[in-house]
Amino acid sequence: SILFSGCNPLERKNKAGLQVITNDIAVSIFIDDQFLGKSPFLTKDIKPGEYIVKLEPEDTTYTAYETTLNLRKGMLSVITWKPVPTLAESGGVIYELEKLPNKNQTEISVLSIPDGGIISIDGKEKKFAPYEEENIEEGSHDFEISLPSYETQNHTINVVKGHKLNILVKLAKENSLGQEELT
Hints:
By secondary structure, this protein is mainly β. The chain has one helix at 177-182, and strands spanning 3-4, 16-21, 27-31, 34-38, 41-46, 49-57, 65-71, 76-82, 91-99, 106-113, 118-121, 127-128, 131-134, 139-146, 153-159, 163-170.
């Protein structure tokens, strides 16, 4: 479980932040092919803009992951990633905050790969990705996304007034090795 907070000291700087969490698996982090460091990684000193972020595991039996991120001024984007040998079985979540014109409004947006992830917020009714909700209660919420044959992801999110929390979930396919041996 991870807590993503919008309280951010970057707000007054013309910089963006990036945090990468890979659960004790050493990964090299690149932005537009420039090496930034190894995981766990946190920087609050990136020029805002759109970048290609690549996570390359040091263990070459694991698959690299690449995505495009829009690093926004004064915001911290967070990637939690589970590297494994195949891209289908790897998964993770990307959190990006963006300011809203109305400082009293709150929003969340959830996309899943593959589409149709089943979303539950605070254990309440199920919704399907892609999903957007305006005026969700400010504060901490339990977030779950699942899909048959994929690993369920559980996280804690923090909804901040005046911001939209964009969540992209890449669901990891459950290991089907045992099933292949039966056929």
